Amino acid sequence: MKRTTLAALAAIATLQISTAGAVEIEGFRFDDALRLGNAELVVNGTGVRSKFGKRYAMALYLPAKSADPKAILAAKGPKRIAISLIKDVDGDTFAGAVSKGINNNSSDAEKAVLKERVKQLADTVVALGEIKAGSSIVFDWLPEKGTVLTINGQPRGREIAGEDFYAALLKVWLGDDPVQNDLKQGLLGKAS
User: Fold this and answer.
1) What is the pLDDT of residue 15?
2) Phi first, then psi: what are they for 12, rounded to 5°?
3) Between 20 and 30 A from 41 (CA), which of 29, 55, 140, 167?
4) DSSP structure class, residue 106
5) What does the pLDDT average to over 150-157?
6) What's the whole-number average pLDDT of the chain?
7) pLDDT digits (tens, 9 = 90+) for 84-118
8) Do residues 40 and 32 touch, judged by C-beta distance below 8 A?
9) Contact 111, 165 (CB under 8 A)
10) Which keywords fit this entry according to its UniProt record (predicted)?
11) CA atoms of 156 and 57, how far apart (whole Å)
């Protein structure tokens, strides 16, 4: 009887720990902090992508909070972009939007260097077909591996090499021509 009670108390404590320190946006919960590789990351900011209605909620995780996009892009170490879909999205549409966002925020020289890696990501996302509402899309930067794409907890495609690629990916939301300015402000922790 004592073991059962202790087990129940331990389970309740674990549940309280796991739900404490989370940011909720559009019904999705993003942890305040997480461990990625050997690094502790904190949520820098959150926001909602709206285009013809709300499309997805997202959070940006960094080793330390920053409201300066240039400092974020230059920062070394692991990073995470976490997206939770509010509406279904076709892989082709999502891949096209990300590719366009990278191209809109890259010089001609950067586009040439990134071209094959952007295609690699796009091909992986297109192959997924429709991604259902409620799905989780995560882009992790792990210096020892590269950019890792995870959908609903499952790694997809091959790692994409180069910190320049992850910086280009971040520019989709944080660049000079972001997909949505108020989303950029939210990810920078300036709005919610």
Assistant:
1) 37
2) -65, -45
3) 55
4) S
5) 96
6) 89
7) 999 999 999 999 999 999 999 999 999 999 999 99
8) no
9) no
10) Isomerase, Signal
11) 20
Per residue in 44-62, is it b (16+ CB within 10 Å) or e — as a string? bbbbbbeeeeebbbbbbbb
Alpha helices by DSSP H, listed for the chain, are: 2-19, 69-74, 91-104, 108-127, 163-174, 181-187
On the CB side of 53, CA atoms within 13 Å amount to 6
| Tokens of residue 52, six digits | 């013809």
- pLDDT over 50 (residue 140): yes
Cα-only R_g, the chain: 18
* Distance from C-alpha of 53 to C-alpha of 75, rounded to nearest angstrom: 33
12: Cβ contacts below 8 Å, ≥ 6 apart: none
Joined together, the tokens standing for residue 47 give 């926001």
21 and 37 Cβ atoms separated by less than 8 Å? no
**23-187 — its CATH code?**
3.50.70.10
Residue with tokens 């950019």: 147
36, 46 in Cβ contact below 8 A? no
CA distance 51 to 179: 9
To 5 degrees, how large is the angle CA 141–CA 130–CA 117?
35
Q: CA angle at residue 39 from 36 to 40, to 5 degrees?
A: 85
Overall size of the chain counted in residues = 192
CB 149 within 8 A of CB 139: yes
Q: In which residue are the tokens 């990810």 written?
A: 187
| pLDDT given at position 21 | 80
